[in-house]
Amino acid sequence: MARYGRNKNSGWGAVSTWTILALIAGWGLWQLAQFRHTLLAQTATARTESVPQNTADSDTDPAATESASPSPAAPAPPIQVAQANATPDDDTVGDGSSAVGGSTPSVEIDSDPEANVLIARGIADLDDGRIIEGRTALNSALAILEDAPASDPRPARLRRQLTDLNEGIFLGSAILPEDAAARYIDIHYGDSFLKIGRRYSISADFLQTINPTLNPRNLKPASGVKIVEGPFRLRLVKHNHRLDLFARDWYVRSYPAQLEVGNYLPAGTYRIRSAGKIRVGDRVWIGFDGADSGTRDISLGWIYGDAGPRAGNPADDRSTGLKLADNDLAQVYNLVVENRSLLHVEP
Question: Residues 6 or more apart from 338 whose CB is under 8 A from it?
Fold first, then answer.
């Protein structure tokens, strides 16, 4: 009995000790869990209070918003002129990049503001169907930008736009209502293309070209004839290898021009000389001579095609003139008038 009682008391004592230890350990673990929960909650609260309200739930880098005070705004980029209805031209390639490398330069609105106003007005007029007004505004803008730097894309785009407008009007049979530059006039008894051409400083061949339905040998007074206010004049821009055609002050179109090695053609003004238009079979030449103090030593220069220039002064072996494609030369030949049409050469 004594052994049983000892074993029982010893077992009860052992069970009681382990129970107490388990309770103490459980309480300690619970306290540790509570402390950890409190710590995590305080940390989360601190993080929430350190983030600005307008960046919550965003992917913004916290370093970018560490200061809540506003900073000075960065300068805005220059306002640029929108290129409405832009099309690729001879200064750009199909993907919109510059033909000389890099992207096509844009034009700041404060660069030649008068030209930008005229361009915007011209585009608006054309979009509204006011062709004459739009053409006038774009032509005036081009005149302002003639000395613009080569990086400025506006002159080339204006030339392209005006070429599209003018091809049928100045060089074809199209007529625009109320157009003072190209219009119909009455035919009088005894009129001929030659007489009418002399009256308006244009060639008889050109009049026949823009009036294909009229018989040049039988002009009837009941009919109207289309005329263009001439004379046509030319401008060669040597560094761009470009020959521009104008009907008085109206830009019409441009032609690629070639200046051969050794070419001697000083800047200045020349005149299509008397008897300077020469035709031999299907080949043509246009002769010119100097018309101002800087060009008077040029007594004979040529606009020529694949046939080359005509024979000049045997004592002078310098080639003076410019070369056009044969088709372009044939058109210019029909447009210019001897003693009246001018060629202005720029460096």
Answer: 272, 273, 274, 275, 276, 277
